[in-house]
Design goal:
The chain is an alpha+beta fold and about 625 residues long. A nine-stranded mixed β-sheet has the order 1-6-5-4-7-3-2-8-9, sandwiched between helices. Strands 15, 19, 22, 23, 26, 27 and 29 form a seven-stranded antiparallel β-sheet that branches. The chain has a six-stranded antiparallel β-sheet with strand order 16-20-21-28-24-25. A hairpin with a 5-residue loop joins strand 4 and strand 5. Helix 2 (about 30-45) packs parallel to helix 7 (about 240-255), helix 3 (about 70-90) packs antiparallel against helix 4 and helix 7 runs parallel beside helix 9 (about 290-300). The longest helix has 27 residues, at about 395-420. The relative contact order is 0.08.
Length: about 625
């Protein structure tokens, strides 16, 4: 029989029978249009031609008459064959999908989507074969965007009848085209064998590609190397442009900013020059992605308030981290996560909950061994790192430690940014401006939640106190405030009616002595007894920096110097009962403090902002408060 161009659905040789919802298709069904945008863009970036600065990718819709589809009658007949077979099997799920496919291909006019890349090599050598006939195999190595060999199935999910055409023009001048339709197994007429469920539009029984480019879009002709993907029966939702544009911006914004990528979505053209305008246009961005996209743009631009730091991750390679806090007016733009981007500048995932203070961060992993190591454990969608993909237990454990170390380094830098007071770009005091005030004695924070309470306490005016009789009630009215202030102690001639500390001096009219004693008397009789009292005229910001390790940061803004302070961390249960957490270690302004009975003691604070890095025995999110005392 003479061979000619047509659709061919090969037999399964009496082996596996495939349904419509195979695993490779299911992978991308959750968000087909967004998956399509990400996967095709990734493949095009990987094919950048040597010497070219950037890749240009175009998404363009067009319409054709159904009869203009190559091999239309044969393709439609196979869809009907599959439908009748599933009906006889009473497979309602597949049958309903095939009914929809039958309706879609029977329309007089078919909507299609063309995805074309430019400044690329085209699919030369084995690349065309691997793309069209490979599954789970790839020739991609090193730091390319993809490496799993199944991303191509995202395009079939976006087709109303699971059919696409590939057409390429290589740098070697070669032209190839091939059609593919992923249906389900169905009976082969005249035999008891069934098909494999996948058909190819080629020139012979070997499904050899056509030696030419196809021109389904009549308004488009390729003149330079690159690849065109045609999705027949494109599922054109009303917001398809916003969905594709948003996914591309969220996934490849850094590549666009670095002028390694330009994208065109119908009439929308995005490059570095108009990136700011696009990002700020709410009509173009899907609502639930605006925050992530805006934060990435602000950070990568390194504008006001953005801090950067290069980190070496255990010798595997360096990463660059960008971080910024957001004040009251822009706190709703904070993501409180760190977006992880690897070369070729593609977003993989985000580390959530890097701080309880409003902030955003991105981490860029350049072309290095760390990049290669993490790429190798990515899931098929390239949206997460999964160490369990490694069979070697020791290597799996090592990779987990690397990721854990990377996250901790990022969190440490974010904490450093949030608590810094060395620059006008970021003022931790500004973080308190959007937070509610309280009249309580100590600052409180709900560690691990977005909202952090900063208490700006009312300064207590303490006048010079003459020796006199005091009530046994230690709380007294001040002359200038309606509230109460702690009585700092004293004595009378008879040693009676003295509050804590108890006892009396041998003499009268003495000055406070320089001792840590909390009770008793002095032989000289010229010094009052000191006691530890809460410091009430300071402002404190308290937030969790690492929940798993029980690490917290307290930023203490003081209006005076104190040489002998004591710090406690308290947490609350569900009914409001307070318990004192055990402090394991504490660093105040870079100096390690002494720990006694789970408290940080005998440390100094100075005028202005002081930073305390606190490690506790808490291993979960709690409503917490920090208490600070000094001798008065």
């Amino acid at each position: 029989m003479e061979e000619k161009e047509n659709w061919r659905f090969k037999g399964n040789n009496y082996t596996y029978e495939n349904g419509l919802d195979t695993a490779d298709m299911e992978t991308f069904k959750k968000d087909p249009i967004a998956s399509l945008a990400r996967e095709t863009c990734q493949n095009s970036i990987d094919a950048k031609k040597e010497g070219e600065k950037k890749v240009v990718i175009e998404f363009k819709t067009f319409e054709i008459k159904s009869q203009e589809i190559l091999g239309y009658d044969r393709l439609r007949a196979e869809i009907e064959n599959c439908k009748e077979y599933k009906k006889s099997q009473r497979n309602d799920k597949d049958y309903e999908q095939l009914c929809d496919m039958s309706k879609a291909i029977s329309k007089e006019t078919i909507t299609c989507l063309r995805i074309s890349d430019f400044h690329t090599t085209g699919l030369y050598g084995d690349k065309f074969y691997l793309l069209t006939k490979g599954s789970g195999i790839t020739d991609k190595t090193g730091t390319t965007g993809g490496s799993k060999g199944i991303g191509k199935y995202a395009s079939f999910v976006a087709s109303a009848f699971n059919t696409v055409f590939y057409s390429t023009y290589t740098i070697e001048g070669e032209r190839k085209s091939l059609g593919i339709s992923k249906l389900c197994s169905s009976p082969i007429e005249g035999t008891d064998e069934k098909t494999m469920g996948i058909g190819y539009y080629g020139i012979d029984l070997k499904n050899t590609p056509m030696n030419q480019q196809i021109e389904l879009d009549k308004e488009y002709v390729r003149t330079t190397s690159g690849t065109d993907l045609y999705i027949l029966g494109f599922k054109k939702e009303q917001s398809w442009k916003q969905q594709i544009l948003s996914m591309l911006l969220d996934s490849f914004l850094v590549a666009i900013f670095k002028e390694e990528l330009e994208i065109k979505v119908d009439d929308i053209h995005v490059n570095k020059n108009n990136l700011k305008e696009i990002v700020e246009n709410e009509e173009l961005i899907v609502k639930n992605m605006r925050k992530s996209i805006f934060s990435q743009y602000v950070l990568v631009c390194e504008g006001e308030g953005v801090f950067t730091k290069e980190l070496d991750i255990l010798g595997y390679g360096k990463v660059k981290v960008f971080a910024r806090s957001f004040g009251r007016e822009q706190s709703d733009l904070a993501t409180n996560n760190c977006v992880m981007i690897r070369y070729p500048y593609m977003k993989i995932k985000a580390f959530p909950g890097i701080s309880t203070m409003p902030c955003s961060a991105i981490c860029i992993i350049e072309d290095n061994n760390l990049n290669k190591l993490l790429k190798d454990i990515e899931n098929p969608q390239h949206t997460d790192w999964e160490p369990k993909r490694k069979n070697d237990e020791s290597l799996r454990s090592e990779i987990k430690n690397i990721i854990h170390h990377l996250r901790n380094c990022i969190i440490d830098f974010v904490v450093e940014v949030l608590s810094t007071s060395e620059t006008e770009k970021l003022d931790i005091e500004g973080a308190g401006d959007y937070l509610p005030e309280s009249n309580e004695e100590d600052s409180e924070a709900i560690a691990g939640e977005q909202e952090v309470t900063v208490v700006k306490e009312t300064p207590v005016i303490v006048k010079k106190i003459q020796n006199k009789n005091y009530s046994k009630n230690p709380m007294v009215k001040t002359n200038s405030l309606e509230g109460t202030a702690p009585d700092i102690g004293g004595h009378n001639d008879d040693g009676e009616d003295s509050p804590v500390p108890q006892g009396e001096n041998a003499g009268n009219q003495g000055e406070p002595h320089e001792s840590n004693e909390t009770k008793g008397s002095t032989e000289e009789g010229d010094k009052d007894i000191l006691k530890h009292v809460p410091l009430t005229d300071i402002k404190k910001v308290f937030f969790v920096s690492n929940k798993e390790n029980g690490e917290y940061v307290a930023v203490i803004d003081s209006i005076y110097e104190e040489a002998d302070c004591e710090l406690e961390v308290h947490y609350f249960d569900d009914v409001g009962n307070s318990y004192r957490a055990k402090i394991i270690n504490c660093m105040v302004n870079g100096a390690e403090t002494e720990i006694q009975d789970g408290k940080a003691i005998k440390f100094k604070i100075g005028l202005g902002k002081n930073k305390a890095m606190i490690k506790t025995n808490l291993k979960d999110y709690y409503r917490c408060e920090v208490k600070l005392y000094a001798n008065r």
